[in-house]
Amino acid sequence: MSSQDNLTDDTTDFGFERVKTAEKAGRVREVFDSVAAQYDLMNDLMSGGLHRLWKRFTIELSAVRSGQTVLDIAGGTGDLAAKFSKLVGADGKVILADINAAMLSVGRDRLIDRGALSNIDVVQADAQFLPFDDNSIDCITIAFGLRNVTDKAKALRSMHRVLKPGGRVLVLEFSKPTSPLLSKVYDAYSFSALPAMGKLITDDADSYRYLAESIRKHPDQESLLEMVEDAGFVDCRYHNMTGGIVAVHRGIKG
Amino acid sequence: MDHDPAVIAGVSLAIEAVIAKALELSPGTQGRLKQLHPLDIELHCTQPSLRVFASIEEDGGVQISNYRETKATVSIEGTWRDFSRLASASDPAAALINGDIKISGDTAPLMQLQAILGELDIDWEAPIVDAIGPVLGHQLAEVIRAILSGSTTAHRRMKRQLSEFILEEGRLSPPKQELDSLFTAIDELVLRTDRIESRIKRIKKRASNLIGVVE
């Protein structure tokens, strides 16, 4: 899926709906404003704790070392940023970026509670227009965030711009299950159990219905790989996890 | 990568948690492990194909991962069967040297690690005391200790009695001394046979020379 498919006639996907491109960011913000306070709890419930393992492998793939600068886009509640903070140490820096102020606020509070803010900068930023110098970041991660970005291709190009040559981008995102049977089970779970859980925990079934729909509209493994390559990254590859429910894509800036 | 990284990450997380708990109950060990930092051990299982890395952290903790781009300090390669044999061996060092496992890289820190782990002394009474209080906890620990000690003694006794039965009562196997004496006698016989053989060869050679002279 290219940027053009996503943005035909100045409209774009918002779950299964078509909305005006200019409206999508606002609609996504409403969703995350609603779920921010219970976001981590819901993630644990919805994935059965698996999101921690997916993120753990993403961190392993990052190969981040002491003294490096890491940008965690759509970092929300800061769980990846906290882990990177330990890896880069006092000489390095982690930038926790999210477009949503409510999510950032929750993330910042959590990081203060963990005492992990000494080498973390918190920045409200849109992934499509990253407010950082060219060639200034060693590693960029975006975990479960790219599908909510209005123009994914533009966001990937923006990431490519700010990365240092040799730096890497890691996109952790829901993807397409590799087994048809798993796909059916997963569909049933996403469209029935997920909104019901959302209703029970956050009293907001619609936001979780949007999450399920946005996952289905997100490019599959091969399409996203193509998008990462089109953005200028080289040595691109992906790793499926949990039968392809989630995939982590890696690209290097040449 | 053949295996689902999430599964490996889950197993790694569980192993890390067990190691962290063991180190917490044996603080001296963690202090000694600190001296081995930075040590990266690669365990490469060839059948089934799997790579796991264990790293000693700056604080003496152990991190398990299944992806690493830097070269490990020491790499241990073998099949799942080789690793199982190593894990169940009564003398892991001997099993490592005599088995089919291949080791490459700097093995000195690996030997140090083995020595540290050999002296691991886990204070397993502490979590019981924390959970149910010092009086009851200590009593329960004493009971567990007695059961463990009793079962170890019983196991040792059973092993000895079984050995005695095989040797003395059942006469299913000769005693070690008898075997040693037999093997020594066989060795001596082999030596004598070799000597006789070479003597026969010499005599034959001499005889053929004599026949040649007479003709």
Describe the structure.
- The complex is a heterodimer of chains A (254) and B (215).
- By secondary structure, chain A is of the alpha/beta class.
- Chain A has a single domain, classed as Vaccinia Virus protein VP39 (Rossmann fold, 3-Layer(aba) Sandwich), CATH 3.40.50.
- In chain A, 48% of the residues lie in helices and 24% in strands.
- Chain A has ten helices and nine strands.
- Chain A has helices at 3-6, 21-35, 39-47, 50-62, 79-88, 101-114, 152-162, 180-202, 205-217, 221-230, and strands at 11-14, 17-20, 69-73, 93-98, 120-124, 137-143, 163-174, 233-241, 246-253.
- Chain A has a seven-stranded mixed beta sheet, sandwiched between helices. Chain A has a two-stranded antiparallel sheet with strand order 1-2.
- Chain A is globular and about 45 Å long.
- The model of chain A is unreliable at 1-7 (pLDDT under 50).
- In chain B, a hairpin with a 5-residue loop joins strand 2 and strand 3.
- Chain B folds into three domains: 5-118, SCP2 sterol-binding domain (Nonspecific Lipid-transfer Protein, Chain A); 124-173; 180-215.
- Chain B has 215 residues and is α+β, with helices and mostly antiparallel strands.
- The longest helix of chain B has 39 residues, at 176-214.
Looking at CATH, which topology of chain A would you report?
A: Rossmann fold
CATH class category label of chain A = Alpha Beta
Helix content of chain B: 55-70%
Number of domains as seen in the coordinates of chain A? 1
What is the strand content of chain A?
Answer: 15-25%
Instruction: Give the topology string of chain A: H per helix, E per strand.
Output: HEEHHHEHEHEEHEHHHEE
